[in-house]
Each structure stands twice: as C-alpha cells, then as structure tokens.
Design a protein that fits this description.
single chain; 264 residues; mainly alpha; 9 helices
Length: 264
C-alpha cells in the first residue's frame, strides 16, 4: 500500500515539475520576444519545415476526413433530413472542429516529435550547454523561431485543410451519394458564418504554440543518450496531443458560449 502511495506521489510531483518547467520556459519565450527581429531567418526556415513539410500529411488526412464526414452525415440523414443539408453538416463540422483539431493532431505528432528529437540530440551532445557558455540564449535562438513558425503556419495549414476536406466531401457526395454540386453548395452557404472560420483559426493559434512548446520543453529536458531522446520524443507527442484536446474544450467554451454566442 505504501509503495502505491509513493508511486502516486512521484507521478504527481513529476506532473507539477513539468507544469512548472513549461511555464518557466514560456516565460523565457515571452521575455525574448523583443529580440524576434534577430530571429527572422531561422523563423522562415522553421516555417518551411513545419508548413511545407506538413502539406502531404494534411492533404491526405483532410480529403478523407471530408469524405467520411459526408458518408456519415448521409447515413444519419436517411429518411429524416433533406440531403440539401449535407453541405451544411460537412462545412460546419470541418470548419468548427474536424479541420482545426485533426490538423493540429497530425501536424503536432510530426512537428513536436521532430523538435523534441532535434533539441534532445543537441542537449545530450552538450551543444545547448556550449551555446550558453558562449553567451547565446538557446531560448531566443532555438525556441522562439519554432514557436513563432508553428503559431503562424498552423492557421495556414488549417485553411488548406478546411478547403480540401470540404472539397473531398463534395466529391464523395456527388459521386457516391447522388448529391449534385449545386445542392451541396446550397447547404454549405445556408448557415455559413465568418465567426465560425475565425473561431477555428483562433484555436489553431493556441494549438501551434502548444505543439512547439511541448517539443522544445521535452527536448530541453532530455538526458540519458539515445534512449532519452526516444523518451523525450514520445512525451512530446503525447503531451501535445493531450493538451490540444483539453485546450480545444476550453477554447470552444469561451468562443462559442461567450464571444461568438448567438443565443437570445
């Protein structure tokens, strides 16, 4: 019984340590923002790595997400709802949730793992320690460009994902469900609100910060050689995915129940 309590206590203390370390790193990032003009070049490089490098993954994911959304909606509509609302359901579900969240999850798995592995390797080979000895701030040089690039590029990837998902749903609706393009577009425009697009993109700004922050934090705390790099990569992916889902709930509550609430 005592060993179980010690295990729970150890897990809880490690959790508090991770929370505190994450916020300390985030504070250092905020303090280094004033030096952002000095990091333009590495930021552009990271934007290319995060944005352009993730396009094939986002493309495949988005097309099939839109396709399955159309199939599932048509199945639920059978004998109950006119098929002209198919475009409405696909558009709403993609713009509000499927596009932002699934894009963040698939990109987060790729990007956070890449960042954690890269910085973790630098940590265990003492390259980060060497930067500090040379009076080079590793947060400004390594973390800030990656966070800025992720925050900028994730909304761009989400716009790309939304378009492809809706296009995939439209193609499936036309070919497999006998819903012509005009009917699908009519439903798509029926309950379209700009606020829905804005809210989805606002969420991805937070998701981008989470992805980069988790990758950097786990990379910076790597120890133990190659095995430690593997553990840090795993922790970065798991923590970024969990935080994306948790943050999505709270942001959805604030955006749709308070800021953009259209109730009476």
């Amino acid at each position: 019984m005592g060993s179980a309590f010690r295990l729970i206590g150890s897990v809880f203390l490690n959790f508090l340590q991770d929370v505190g370390g994450t916020f300390l790193l985030l504070g250092r990032v905020f303090r280094s923002v004033r030096e952002f003009p000095r990091t333009i070049k590495p930021t552009l490089y990271q934007m290319e790595q995060i944005g352009i490098g993730s396009i094939p993954l986002v493309l495949v994911t988005s097309v099939f997400v839109g396709a399955v959304a159309a199939v599932q909606a048509a199945y639920q509509f059978q004998d109950y709802v006119p098929m002209r609302f198919l475009g409405t359901v696909v558009g709403k579900s993609v713009i509000l949730e499927l596009g932002p969240v699934l894009t963040a999850l698939v990109v987060g798995g790729r990007v956070s793992a890449s960042i954690a592995a890269e910085l973790g390797t630098m940590k265990v080979t003492e390259q980060i320690d060497a930067m500090e000895i040379l009076a080079i701030d590793p947060v400004r040089y390594l973390v800030l460009p990656r966070m800025a690039a992720a925050i900028i590029m994730l909304p761009v990837l989400t716009i790309f994902s939304d378009f492809l998902a809706i296009l995939g749903g439209m193609v499936v609706a036309n070919i497999a469900l006998d819903v012509n393009v005009a009917t699908f577009n009519e439903g798509l425009r029926l309950f379209f609100y700009v606020e829905d697009v804005v809210s989805g993109l606002l969420k991805t700004v937070a998701f981008g910060g989470i992805i980069a922050l988790m990758g950097c934090y786990n990379g910076f705390r790597t120890y133990g050689g190659a095995e430690g790099v593997g553990k840090s990569t795993m922790h970065a992916v798991v923590s970024s995915c969990l935080l994306i889902l948790i943050t999505n709930y709270f942001l959805a509550t604030v955006l749709f129940r308070i800021i953009f609430y259209r109730g009476t």
